[in-house]
Structure formats: structure tokens, C-alpha cells
């Protein structure tokens, strides 16, 4: 079945989508997102990674009941993303903080997601805790033709250091070539400034991949998504990934467009720490996805999915994302990050 039979046909008068000077024009709408699932671990001890806390005997007392509730909660969030404009929800979802392929298989089997028929792209990363990035996608919407994990080297001299791979997935989205780069850049452990070089290296690697793709095809449609552990105005994003928030700045320097810069400047975030909001969870794109004159899909709008049910309602962390744990105290929530997603539209 083709995507054109599955995506909602909208009118601009119904949803206020303006395309040029048209008063009324039909478009197809698709949603693409990213979600940090916050430590989606199974309950078994894997001797090859540091996952002992997420076992029944570990500090988190991570039981099958808690694991099952976590899966149900994650599935509910994903099932609601993008439903405002398309009943099919997200066609493509990048994910991070997953222990292995099994937990993703369990996730997409959840009743709220099973009917979508999501498929999985996953590779084990060299992260010392064993957490990886991955991708789930609706094969009726996106036909994957190739996927590759790309290593990010943060070694110092002879001191070998590893972090999560960048996942490069390419395929046909409703028949159009599309590249997805899923990221989870190094954390700010040790301090934002002291650790910045690690995220800068990840950004440079990601940018090198994009440059290679645009050398082959200057009009390549590339979406960069992930938990960047930096804000849209951080050095890694602005200077090394070369992503900016103004479309007028794109062409002259082959910059990427980051719609989350404007969202961040308006005071919105996807995660909170010490009563300050950050917007680490971003979706960024090449200029080709901003061209409204393109015959294919182009960017309509982006948002942070911060519905009320995802927010802590009381206590010390009132107003923060309602997470699974507060330290080792089980909260039964969702994630310490809100997900992000964008809408793409296409004239019909």
C-alpha cells in the first residue's frame, strides 16, 4: 500500500496551512520524530555491559512489572505523537537510550503500536552502559534501502573512549530519497565546558556525513535528529554541525535549518536540570527540505511534545518531565526528556 493512500489529505482552510498565495490547497502530511526513552533496559543482567542496576536485584529493583509498565507508557506517548495532523502518527521515529534490539521489539508489540507494523533498525553501540540509538519506521511509508552505524571516536591519546554511534538510515519516503541520521551525543558529565569537545567531535562527524551526501547530490534530503546534549545555540550545533534557525542564512554557507532554535529562544525545552530548561532533543534538516516550491515533501512545522500527562505535577520536580525514576525511587513515569517531532507536507 502506498503512502498516498495512508496519509491524511488536509485543506489549508481546515488547518490553516498556507502554501504560497493559495486560499485552499490539498496536501499530504507526515510526521517524523525523535524520543529519548530514558533507560529502556530489560531485566536481565548482560555481563558485557554495565546494566546491573536495571535488574531485579539491582539498585533500581527493576522487575518485569516495572519493565512492562515502562513499555506501556512509552507506547502511549509514541501513539499520540503527530496525531494532530495525521491519524497515522509518526512514520519514522528515532530513539535513544535503548539497551538492545529486544526491548525495541517488545515496544512495538505493545497493543497501542502493534497495528502500525513498525519495523526496526538497530546496531549495538560501544557505549559502556550498553545504551544505543535506533529507528522504528512504518514500512508502508518508508522503504529502507541501507543502514550503517558510524563510529564517533572520542579517544585521547592511547586512552580509548567510546560513545554511541551515529545511525545512518537511507531509503525512499513515499518514493522520495531520504536520509536519516540518529544521534545521541556525549553527555555533559564533568561539566558542560570540559566535555564540549566530545560533542563537537560528534557534530563534526555528523557534518562530514552530510557534506559527503551533498557532494554526491546537492539536493539530498537529510534529517539529523537526536539527543544532542547541547542546545540549538551551542557551539557544537551552530559552529560544527552548522545549523541555524533562520532560513535566510542557509544558502550562502550550506547551513542546515534548525527549527528548534526558534522554539528554544521562545523559552521552551525538552529536558530540565536545576530549574533551567534545555532543548537537547532536536530535528534539523538540509535546505532541500525547506523549499516550498519543491514537488516533494518539505518542512511545515516542528514542536516539542510536552502534553500535560508527561509533566510532573507536584513535589521537588514539579513542572519537569515525569520520568521513570527519581534517582532510585520509582516514579512510574515516562522519560526525563519530552519527544520532538516535525510535520512534512507535500502538495497533491
Strand percentage, roughly? 25-35%
- What is the end-to-end distance? 17 Å
CATH architecture: 4-Layer Sandwich
Low-confidence stretches: 1-16
Instruction: Kindly report the average pLDDT value.
Output: 92
Based on secondary structure, the structural category is alpha+beta
Q: What's the domain count?
A: 1
What name is given to the CATH topology? Deoxyribonuclease I, Chain A
Q: CATH top level?
A: Alpha Beta
Number of helices: 8
> Oligomeric form of this entry?
single chain
Overall radius of gyration: 20 Å
Outline the secondary-structure elements.
Blueprint lengths: L8 E3 H4 L10 E15 L23 H17 L9 E9 L2 H8 L2 H4 L4 E4 L9 E6 L4 E9 L15 E8 L2 E9 L7 H25 L5 E6 L7 H6 L2 E2 L5 H4 L2 E2 L2 H6 L5 E3 L2 E3 L2 E5 L12 E7 L20 E2 L2 E2 L9 E8 L1
Parallel strand pairs: 2-3, 8-9, 10-11
Antiparallel strand pairs: 1-2, 2-18, 3-5, 4-5, 6-7, 7-8, 9-14, 12-13, 15-18, 16-17
Helix pairs in contact: 2-3
What can be said about this structure in brief?
This protein is of the alpha+beta class and 348 residues long. The chain has eight helices and 18 strands.
Question: Main traits of this protein?
Answer:
7-stranded mixed beta sheet, 5-stranded mixed beta sheet, 8 helices, alpha+beta, 348 residues, Deoxyribonuclease I, Chain A
Structure explained in plain terms:
This protein is α+β, with helices and mostly antiparallel strands. It has one domain (3-347): Deoxyribonuclease I, Chain A. The chain is 21% helix and 30% strand. The chain contains eight helices and 18 strands. The protein has helices spanning 12-15, 64-80, 101-108, 111-114, 192-216, 235-240, 250-253, 260-265, and strands at residues 9-11, 26-40, 90-98, 119-122, 132-137, 142-150, 166-173, 176-184, 222-227, 243-244, 256-257, 271-273, 276-278, 281-285, 298-304, 325-326, 329-330, 340-347. The strands form five sheets. Strands 1, 2, 3, 4, 5, 15 and 18 form a seven-stranded mixed beta sheet that branches. Residues 1-16 have low confidence and may be disordered.
Amino acid at each position: 500500500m502506498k503512502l498516498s493512500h495512508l496519509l491524511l489529505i488536509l485543506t489549508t482552510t481546515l488547518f490553516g496551512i498556507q502554501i504560497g498565495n493559495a486560499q485552499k490547497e490539498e496536501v499530504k502530511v507526515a510526521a517524523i520524530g525523535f524520543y529519548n526513552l530514558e533507560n529502556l533496559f530489560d531485566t536481565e543482567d548482560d555481563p558485557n555491559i554495565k546494566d546491573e542496576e536495571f535488574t531485579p536485584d539491582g539498585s533500581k529493583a527493576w522487575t518485569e512489572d516495572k519493565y512492562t509498565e515502562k513499555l506501556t507508557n512509552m507506547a502511549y506517548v509514541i501513539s499520540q505523537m503527530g496525531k494532530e495532523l495525521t491519524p497515522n502518527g509518526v512514520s519514522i521515529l528515532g530513539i535513544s537510550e535503548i539497551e538492545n534490539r529486544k526491548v525495541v521489539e517488545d515496544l512495538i508489540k505493545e497493543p497501542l503500536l502493534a497495528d502500525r507494523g513498525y519495523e526496526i533498525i538497530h546496531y549495538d553501540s560501544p557505549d559502556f552502559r550498553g545504551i544505543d540509538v535506533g529507528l522504528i519506521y512504518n514500512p508502508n511509508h518508508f522503504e529502507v534501502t541501507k543502514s550503517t552505524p558510524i563510529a564517533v571516536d572520542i579517544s585521547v591519546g592511547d586512552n580509548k573512549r567510546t560513545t554511541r554511534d551515529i545511525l545512518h538510515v537511507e531509503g525512499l519516503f513515499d518514493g522520495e530519497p531520504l536520509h536519516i541520521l540518529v544521534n545521541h551525543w556525549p553527555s555533559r558529565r564533568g561539566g558542560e565546558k570540559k566535555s564540549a569537545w566530545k560533542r563537537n567531535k560528534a557534530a563534526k562527524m555528523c557534518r562530514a556525513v552530510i557534506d559527503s551526501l551533498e557532494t554526491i547530490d546537492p539536493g539530498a534530503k537529510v534529517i539529523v535528529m537526536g539527543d544532542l546534549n547541547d542546545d540549538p545555540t551551542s557551539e557544537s550545533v551552530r559552529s560544527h554541525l552548522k545549523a541555524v534557525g533562520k532560513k535566510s542564512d542557509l544558502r550562502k554557507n550550506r547551513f542546515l535549518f534548525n527549527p528548534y532554535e526558534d522554539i528554544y529562544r521562545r523559552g521552551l525545552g525538552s529536558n530540565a536540570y536545576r530549574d533551567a530548561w534545555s532543548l537537547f532533543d532536536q530535528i534539523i534538516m538540509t535546505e532541500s527540505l525547506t523549499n516550498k516550491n519543491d514537488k516533494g515533501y518539505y518542512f511545515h512545522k516542528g514542536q516539542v511534545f510536552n502534553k500535560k500527562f508527561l509533566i510532573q505535577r507536584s513535589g521537588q520536580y514539579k513542572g519537569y518531565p515525569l520520568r521513570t525514576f527519581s534517582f532510585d525511587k520509582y516514579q512510574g513515569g515516562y522519560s526525563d526528556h519530552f519527544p520532538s517531532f516535525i510535520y512534512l507536507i507535500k502538495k497533491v
